[in-house]
Design brief:
With 591 residues, this protein is α/β, with parallel strands linked by helices. It contains 20 helices and 23 strands. Strand 11, helix 12 and strand 12 form a beta-alpha-beta unit.
């Protein structure tokens, strides 16, 4: 699937060729070098939508990955090297302009055997014409035509053209003699010989009687500017009334097609590319039956843990909305639990009345003590849940919608290489009686993102690193240390980057999130904890110690009607070890 091209002929041809084999559709989006790769996020989403529509096709192997690049041909070569396909199917000639490569360069350095598609692929193939001379690509053309014929019960006719003016066999006809021995032993093939003084016109005239023409490109030591596949094949693929497949065997591929830029430029390209390929929209996963099918095929279980502290006003609506949509109507979630941080309101009672198991995190794994903070609740939720995938959403969401859950889950079901997914959204900020549409996320923009840009620039494309709606695969999360307080989100993000790499992380647009905005003092304390978490991770990277000599207490300015004064509060961001190291957890999950 190449963005900006008519892909139907190539897809139809791939189905014909595959027979009982598999077609792996790969999405490619090429972006002009003078544009940021991040501008391709929407085209990438649209290509993924088309790819998902192919998922139920028996010929298609699910492939929701879309690649975005300034140099898409080089990217495609790397993908082929990784997947090691038997054939690469491309449309002629539009694919080459969309892939931003000249046909001469591409065909001179193929990653695998190639099939170029021209004309319109018929729905049913009955007659296949194979013009054949015996050149280096004749065997591939013949083999391919036989595979197509077998799947369609079609007749293959080979056409060998002999120069009319020559009375004795030409020296140029010698290559045909080798393949002729094979043709004589193939009952499926009807050989034909015809004299001609104009091979192109003869083939074009014959193609009117066939549904498909399969032939090799012309082998040339040097390609002409406009004749990359040779003058004969170029005219046939352009003028034939039948569908055309031009084949070419691979040649040795250089080890590296592109040179990496150094310093910040390389990081910018890396992040822009990640942003385009790994930024999803919740609406891409609104087909719940499709998600259920993906989940069933992968034999996965999914848990949702809801951290809460005094959320009686909103927790009931959150639970009802999610449970009705994703448990009762569409069985996507296998388990929902509430992890309460010792609320003093009716949060726990409301959850129990709605049939959700409730745990007070201070009463869980008590031998390790009880720390305050959301991160503590999230860490213990690993112990309390059983799903292969664990999702978290906050319980203070006013405009709760099932997309907050299925949007986070979707990328991990669609792509096995995705290990961790963050949600992002517009966060309205209430100022007096007015609402600022994008005014929320102050700690994100003033603390978290600047820190990531400074010290972890690979993560600079994460729109909301501190969002409370995210999830990951248990096999990864159980190996991560958890900060007990506000640093838990940024700590997990950095750890997944270090452990799994940037491409293991995805982010999903969840549209808008309405919740209760915190006071400025609370945001200040949050920032203090987040800065500590990042410094902890920098210590691990450098092997040094920074926080030992840094003040762990924060002086807060308190205001009263007639005075203001300083107050001291300790905000020490501490860590819990990876859950996999906890004996009680290993006893629950002996595997």
């Amino acid at each position: 699937m190449v963005w900006g091209c008519q892909n139907d002929p190539a897809l139809a041809a791939a189905r014909l060729i595959a027979g009982k084999g598999a077609v792996v559709p790969i999405g490619m989006v090429g972006i002009s070098p003078d544009e940021s790769l991040s501008t391709a996020a929407q085209p990438a989403q649209e290509v993924r939508k088309i790819l998902r529509g192919m998922a139920r096709d028996a010929h298609m192997r699910a492939a929701n990955r879309v690649y975005v690049s300034h140099h898409p041909w080089e990217e495609l070569v790397e993908v082929c090297q990784e997947l090691d396909p038997d054939l690469l199917v491309l449309g002629w000639p539009c694919y080459f302009s969309a892939l931003r490569v000249s046909p001469e360069k591409a065909l001179g350095n193929l990653p695998c055997d190639l099939v170029l598609i021209g004309g319109k692929m018929p729905g049913r193939i009955q007659q296949i014409l194979v013009p054949i001379r015996g050149g280096p690509y004749a065997e591939l053309a013949l083999r391919l035509s036989l595979e197509v014929a077998e799947g369609n019960r079609a007749q293959v006719t080979t056409l060998h053209l002999v120069p009319r003016e020559e009375q004795v066999p030409s020296r140029t006809d010698a290559p045909f003699r080798g393949i002729e021995k094979i043709l004589n032993q193939l009952e499926e093939v009807q050989p034909a010989v015809e004299e001609t003084s104009d091979p192109v016109e003869t083939i074009l005239a014959a193609s009117h009687r066939y549904d498909l023409v399969v032939m090799g490109a012309t082998a040339q030591p040097e390609f002409h500017q406009t004749k990359a596949i040779g003058p004969v094949a170029e005219r046939i693929i352009r003028e034939s009334p039948a569908g055309v497949m031009i084949v070419k065997t691979k040649r040795p591929v250089p080890a590296n097609f592109t040179s990496e830029e150094a310093g910040h430029t390389a990081i910018s390209v890396l992040v822009d590319k990640w942003f385009a390929e790994n930024t999803y929209h919740a609406n891409e996963f609104s087909d719940l039956e499709y998600l259920i099918e993906l989940k069933r095929n992968q034999n996965l279980t999914v848990s949702l843990a809801l951290p809460a502290l005094n959320e009686a006003d909103t927790v009931g609506n959150v639970i009802r909305t999610v449970k009705e949509a994703l448990v009762e109507c569409a069985p996507i979630l296998d388990e929902i639990v509430l992890i309460d941080s010792d609320s003093t309101d009716e949060t726990r009672e409301i959850a129990r009345e709605l049939g959700v198991p409730v745990y007070v995190h201070q009463a869980v794994l008590t031998r390790y003590g009880a720390r305050p903070g959301k991160g503590e609740a999230l860490w213990k939720s690993l112990y309390l849940t059983s799903g292969d995938i664990l999702l978290w959403i906050d319980t203070d969401i006013v405009n709760i919608h099932p997309r907050f859950v299925y949007g986070i889950l979707g990328p991990m079901l669609a792509r096995e290489d995705i290990q961790f997914v963050k949600g992002f959204y517009r966060r309205p900020l209430r100022v007096g009686d007015k609402i600022q549409a994008g005014g929320g996320g102050r700690v994100t923009e003033l603390t978290a993102r600047p820190l990531l840009n400074l010290f972890y620039p690979e993560l600079s494309g994460i729109i909301q690193p501190l969002s409370g709606e995210y999830g990951g695969r248990r096999a990864v999360l159980e190996k991560m240390a958890f900060f007990s307080g506000y640093g838990v989100e940024i700590g997990l993000l950095i750890d997944v980057l270090d452990c799994c790499g940037l491409n293991a992380i995805a982010q999903v647009d969840l549209l808008e999130r309405v919740h209760h905005n915190q006071a400025l003092e609370s945001l200040s304390k949050m920032s203090f904890a987040i800065i500590q978490a990042v410094i902890h991770r920098l210590e691990r990277r450098s092997g040094g110690s920074i926080l030992e000599d840094v003040n762990r207490t924060m002086k807060l300015i308190r205001y009263e009607p007639s005075r203001f004064f300083l107050d001291i509060e300790e905000i020490a961001e501490r860590e819990r070890p990876p859950m996999i190291e906890i004996p009680e957890y290993r006893e629950r999950r002996p595997a």
